[in-house]
Structure of Metal dependent phosphohydrolase:
Amino acid sequence: MSATAFLLDFNALLSSLRLYPAEHPLNLKLLDRLWQQLHRQTNEQGPLRLALHDGALLINDELFSDHPAAKALVNLLQTNHIDGFEILASLTPDQLCHFIALFTSNQLQGDQFDQQLAAAAIHAIHSLELTGASEDGHNAPRTTYQKALSCVNHLGEQILQGGVPRSGPLRQAVDSMAQELIRAPYAFFALTLIKDFDDYTYSHSVNVAVVAMTIGQACGLSADRLQQLGVGCLMHDLGKLKIDSRILRKPGPLSIEEYAQMQRHPLLGADIAQAMDDIDPAVLAIIQGHHLHYDRHGYPKVALAADHAPLVDICTVADVYDALTTLRAYRRPSSPRQALQLLQQLAGSQLHPHYVAALVQTLGDFPVGTLVRLVNNEIGLIIDQDRLDNQRALVRILRDDEGQLLTTSYDRQIDSSEDLAGEVDPLRLGIRPADWL
């Protein structure tokens, strides 16, 4: 669907709604045609973005300044102080119908746009932020990551206060994450090196979602299944909010009694999720089963439906990966490269071998987030990789060929098969990779 076709169909529906009630056959026909085109466009080409630009209308990369249909839409956006919005692939006909009704009746306002959509259970449309990022989208991965982290943090606060959170913001966060994994998969994955030790449960949940969705995309999951996977991973450890914080923060091994308490968190998390609105059974399965292990010798002893098992097994791989790359009081963190090697050792018993292999193949021999020494003796951090050839990487050079820390780091494109001498231990050099992303 071209931008012009979308504009004409969208405007035709708006015009018809001014003449006839929403349930009129003509409006229903126009709505169905618009949804069919949007569904095809967003699934094949990614989200459709519509925004104001110097008083004109920008649809994806096409600018409409004098088009009559564009002027009507610009007027609606300006009247409601909406800078722009993005339509994602998970949009349903009901969501589109509800959105059109709210949009044309001026019930959506710019500063409350996302909250109003979430309250209306419209999860596949959200506002566009037109400031704060560079033109090439350099800051987009971090912005998306931080939004997901804020979403999970807010969810946790509501639970701790005895409230029942809504699931809509989680789905919006996951939709944005899915698009970022399409646009800049390795740069987004690199952010899993971020570890917030004060709110470990929250940052861990976002990291697990990023890793799991990376595996899911590599395995060709549909948009719906990817959303179920992402939401389940964001929520997988929320049951820990019901566990004594002294157990969660204990620096050493847990006692038998403490471990028994910890083992309750999957079922406690499922209880939290069941009280929320519109939670898919697959999400509940992920929360309940992420410690079951591939051999099903883990905990708790719950039965998994066959169609939910793949998502649970993917979450388990992601959960272990993030745990391995996290500093513990009793264990130093593994590098991304070391973590992949450990995952391979667990494949076939604790972890599903197919999903471990998918992650290893996606990340390559020197994964993003690995500190490396180049053949010229410079030291740098792999911060991005070519999505078509993960051997080609972008390295942020931190130390020169004499081992001196650079005053200003710089980035260099390399071929890891030719330019890398090997991996370097960041702890030995006092380097925190997350500080250089």
User: Anything to note?
Assistant: Confidence is low (pLDDT under 50) at residues 131-136. The two ends are 37 Å apart (CA to CA). The beta strands are 48-53, 56-59, 62-64, 84-87, 125-127, 371-374, 379-386, 389-399, 405-415, 420-423. The chain is about 50% helix and 15% strand.
